[in-house]
Every structure is written in structure tokens, then in C-alpha cells.
Design a protein that fits this description.
407 residues; alpha/beta; 60s Ribosomal Protein L30, Chain: A; 2 domains; ten-stranded mixed β-sheet; 10 strands; globular; Tubulin-like protein CetZ
Length: 407
């Protein structure tokens, strides 16, 4: 084995998966971070270095299964007595500001020197996470040098005007306070006729699956699973550092495992392997296209993306550099970006998967639609409020103005 190859393998062994301090803000955020801990335990990926849940509703915190009780922070007790803020995200923001020291108390237990970034996870349609997550992001960026990312969940269009209005206002604020906002659009994932509870459960699984593969890339645990061109935390950070909005595409295909003779077989390229190599290359390039052009976490036109990252995972025997490089070049052509990184992530799983992170996306019809619906909802709310005040006035005032109020 040549010195160049040995050096590359040693360098890959030094790389590692992304280590995150995850903070779930509000009901949706807490549930998703809880699921990330479950994913970590199941896959051994080690993504979540620390996990905290913040909420104004005590019942939501009690319903969590994996986040340690000492890391569940109830805020706003003086204002809402543990009952939540409903869909009032202005109140959610106010409470987050008032009780930021309580949140910081939990964050103080995080070994910040061991993490690569903070990830604040929140549903943008409700009250607590929608209002509080931008407040927390601003606070963290003021104190720490580590990147602060957001994972924002957009509500479905059938959830009502107030949730759309909350999401539009929260999105506009959150994206300015974080180093990058990763977005998942419920509207693109809810199935027709599906129950709300069942739908959210499946959506949360999808969120964790996609971002788990992305953030988990880089962890090497077995000698025969050394990647040819490993993706690790530095590539993810470099892809996200331009800021703005990001979306993730994903596709997978089941494969049959076979004995290829270990790591070196991927570098020999003997005649007997030519057909299998061609099949592997074609499978990977096809998966990359389906991941980028299929259901993204936030549907958008991929052309114009400022940067991209490709991670191909699966059994080492089913990964090769040629397929990944072809997929990476195709992404360069489709996005028009010169900042397209790529690599593999060996996993002992019976499938090959491609995850595509597109950062700095601009052509996002859903965001424009969300903003327009929110503007209409705001106008309707103002009209209803004015009408309500007029109706109350007509009800309580006597015609002859003969009654005097108490004060």
C-alpha cells in the first residue's frame, strides 16, 4: 500500500461526525430533539452531544421520553403558569426574553468545547417555539463563537391563518438571527386523509432520518469501513457558512450485501469487478439525481443554490469514488455553484442512500406563498378585531348615554 493511500486513510480516521448541542424550543422542537436522541441510541451516530427542551407548557415537557429531566426547562411560569402561550408568538418571544437566564442555566451544563455547533429546533407556526427560538439564537450568537443553526418546521396550509401568520413572521426573524436556517415544510409531506397525530409522527421520523444521515457523516468505527473520501463536520460547516436558507434531499435503495474482499478491492478495479463497478456508479448517480429533484425538506428550484454537499452512505462494497464524483459534478451543473462538496459515509445497513444539502436557496415558491397568505391573514385579523370592538361598543353603550361607568 503506497504512502499516499496510507496517509489518506489516517486522515480519514481523524475525521469525525458533527457534534451538536440541540435545543428543542416549544412542543414540536422538543419532540424532534427527543427523536434525535432515540436515533442516536439506535444508530450509534453520536450526533447529539447535549439535548435541552424549552417550553411554556409543563405537560409537553413531561411527555418527552429521552431528554434528561434536568435538561427540560419550563419558562414563563409567572405569566402563563405552565399552561403554554397558545398560538401567541409575541408572548412567546417576550417570555423567552424575560427568562433567558433560566435557559442559559441549562446551556451552562453543555461542554461547549466539545461541540461543533448549536442547533435550535422549533415549529414556526405555534407560539412558544415560533416566538422564542429567534430570541435564543440571538442570545447564543452574542455569547458563543460556535455556529448557531436553526431547524424550522413550517405548518401545513390546512392548519389555519394564525399559524401561517406566525410562521411567516418567525421565519423572517429566525433566518436573520441564525448562521443558517434549515427548513422542513409540513405542507409538502402531509398525506391526504392522514390523521394529524399520525401525520406528525411520520413527519418527525422523516426529519430525523434526513438530518441524521447528514449530520452523522464522518463517524468511522470499524477498520473495514473507512471511507474513500469521507465527509465530516468541517464540510457541513463550510457548506452552511454562507447563511440563508437550506433544504435537504434524500433517496435510498435497498442492496444485497456481498463479500468484496475488504477495503483494497475498491482500489484494485480488476476485470471481474468491472460490471459491478459500473452498476455501483450508475446506482449512486441515479440516487443523487432523485435526492436533489425529489421531495426536498423545503421544495425549491435547485438552480442558484449558493453551495451544496453530497453524502452517499451505505455498505462500503456498494460505494465508489467514481459515482460520487459524477453525482457531485451533476450537482455543480444543476445548481451553477462552484462550491459543491461530496463524499461517502460507510454504514452497515442494507441500503445505499444519497443526502443532498442545498444551502443558500433563493427560488422558493412556498415562502412567497406563505408570506402572501400571512399578509391576508393579518388584514383579516385586523378587520375582525375592529369589528369586534365596534360590536362590543354597540352592545354595552345605552342609546341615551344615561349610565355612568364605575371608572
Amino acid at each position: 500500500m503506497g504512502k499516499t493511500l496510507i496517509g489518506a486513510l489516517v486522515q480519514n480516521l481523524l475525521k469525525r461526525t458533527m457534534k451538536l448541542a440541540m435545543i428543542g424550543f416549544g412542543q414540536a422542537g422538543g419532540k424532534i430533539v427527543d427523536k434525535f436522541l432515540e436515533y442516536d441510541a439506535r444508530t450509534g451516530s453520536g450526533i447529539v452531544q447535549s439535548a435541552i427542551a424549552v417550553n411554556t407548557a409543563k405537560a409537553d415537557l413531561l411527555g418527552l421520553e429521552n431528554i434528561p429531566e434536568e435538561n427540560r426547562v419550563l419558562i414563563g411560569q409567572a405569566r402563563v403558569k405552565g399552561h403554554g402561550v397558545g398560538a401567541d408568538n409575541e408572548l412567546g418571544a417576550e417570555i423567552a426574553e424575560e427568562d433567558i437566564d433560566e435557559i442559559q442555566g441549562a446551556i451552562d451544563s453543555i461542554p461547549v468545547h466539545e461541540i461543533d455547533a448549536f442547533l435550535i429546533v422549533a415549529g414556526l407556526g405555534g407560539g412558544t417555539g415560533s416566538g422564542g427560538s429567534p430570541v435564543l439564537a440571538k442570545h447564543l450568537k452574542r455569547i458563543y463563537t460556535e455556529p448557531v443553526y436553526g431547524l424550522g418546521i413550517l405548518p401545513g396550509g390546512d392548519e389555519g391563518g394564525i399559524y401561517t401568520l406566525n410562521a411567516a413572521r418567525s421565519f423572517q426573524t429566525f433566518v436573520r438571527e441564525v448562521d443558517n436556517l434549515l427548513v422542513f415544510d409540513n405542507d409538502a409531506w402531509r398525506k391526504t386523509g392522514e390523521s394529524v397525530e399520525g401525520g406528525y409522527e411520520e413527519i418527525n421520523d422523516e426529519i430525523v432520518r434526513r438530518f441524521g444521515v447528514l449530520f452523522g457523516a464522518g463517524e468511522i468505527s470499524a477498520d473495514d469501513n473507512v471511507a474513500e473520501s469521507v465527509v465530516d463536520s468541517s464540510e457541513i460547516i463550510n457548506t452552511l457558512e454562507g447563511g440563508g436558507v437550506s433544504t435537504v434531499g434524500y433517496d435510498a435503495e435497498a442492496v444485497e450485501e456481498y463479500d468484496s474482499g475488504g477495503l483494497l478491492s475498491r482500489f484494485k478495479g480488476g476485470d471481474d469487478d468491472d460490471m459491478e463497478t459500473a452498476n455501483t456508479t450508475n446506482r449512486i448517480t441515479s440516487l443523487v439525481r432523485k435526492a436533489a429533484l425529489g421531495r426536498l425538506t423545503l421544495p425549491c428550484e435547485i438552480e442558484g443554490s449558493e453551495s451544496a454537499l453530497l453524502v452517499v452512505s451505505g455498505p462500503p462494497n456498494h460505494l465508489n469514488r467514481k459515482g460520487i464524483e459524477r453525482g457531485r459534478k451533476w450537482l455543480e451543473e444543476q445548481t451553477g455553484s462552484m462550491e459543491v462538496r461530496g463524499g461517502d459515509y460507510p454504514l452497515d445497513e442494507p441500503s445505499v442512500a444519497a443526502a443532498v444539502l442545498l444551502s443558500g436557496v433563493h427560488n422558493v415558491p412556498r415562502i412567497k406563498e406563505l408570506q402572501q397568505v400571512a399578509i391576508e391573514a393579518q388584514e383579516n385579523i385586523d378587520e375582525i378585531q375592529q369589528e369586534s370592538e365596534e360590536n362590543l361598543e354597540a352592545l354595552v353603550e345605552d342609546d341615551e348615554d344615561e349610565l355612568d361607568p364605575l371608572f
